[in-house]
Specification:
Elements lengths: L4 H14 L9 E5 L6 E10 L2 E11 L2 E2 L2 H19 L10 H14 L15 E2 L10 E8 L4 E6 L3 H12 L4 E9 L16 E2 L2 H7 L3 E7 L1
């Protein structure tokens, strides 16, 4: 069945043989219900007694109903990232010259339709999880700058994500304080949840929603 761990594993093995010459060891394969991406590659470096342990992860989201070939192209896309990382190929950026060259080669040679980014809407994909069933609970970070400007972002509901974001903010000198709010307002469902430093300008509508939220913690810098 497409979108399952079995599908991901079988597809990886198939394309590893057909396209990558069986040169890629099977990485950690995961299925996610993320609504912000179809596929993702992660390269984590973990220290251990004999040096650094490289951990390679390929993730496929099963939250969308898209054609099988789109999921296959997504898996191959992430496998190109994996190949570049595994072979320690230097690239100019995440989708730099090395990636683009390999992507175009695969598209021409194997008749695929890999792209730098995959717009779910353009594939006709829809979220399999009805909106009414998605948890509206959100954690919202409000950043006050030394310029008296205010921004916000929606956070993942994890302790790891919270600490990761706080570590990043600590290194941004323009931030005066960060407040974290818990809310069940449906207004925040449309925003991606991440620990990146991508933030949004505070609006009157957001401020009104946060006025009904619960202050979890405030960090003064």
């Amino acid at each position: 069945m497409i979108g399952t761990l079995e599908f991901l594993r079988e597809s990886f093995n198939r394309f590893n043989s057909e396209i990558f010459g069986n040169n890629l060891p099977v990485p950690i394969l995961k299925i996610s219900n993320a609504r912000t991406f179809l596929g993702k590659f992660q390269h984590k470096k973990q220290p251990y007694s004999k040096g650094i342990l490289n951990e390679f992860i390929v993730i496929l989201s099963n939250a969308f109903d898209v054609p099988q070939e789109v999921l296959e192209d997504t898996i191959i896309h992430e496998m190109v990232h994996y190949e570049i990382a595994f072979l320690s190929i230097k690239d100019t950026s995440a989708h730099g010259n090395a990636f683009l060259s390999r992507m175009n080669e695969i598209n021409v040679k194997y008749g695929r339709n890999l792209a730098v980014s995959q717009s779910i809407g353009k594939t006709g994909g829809v979220c399999l999880k009805p909106k009414a069933q998605r948890s509206p609970e959100s954690m919202v970070a409000v950043l006050e700058l030394k310029t008296d400007e205010t921004f916000f972002k929606v956070m993942p509901l994890t302790i790891t994500g919270f600490h990761s974001f706080c570590d990043k903010i600590e290194r941004v000198p323009s931030v005066k304080s960060v407040s974290f709010y818990g809310t069940f307002s449906e207004h925040f469902r449309k925003y991606p949840r991440s620990t990146s430093l991508k933030v949004y300008k505070m609006t009157d509508e957001v401020a009104k929603e946060l006025g009904k939220a619960t202050l979890i913690r405030k960090i003064e810098k």
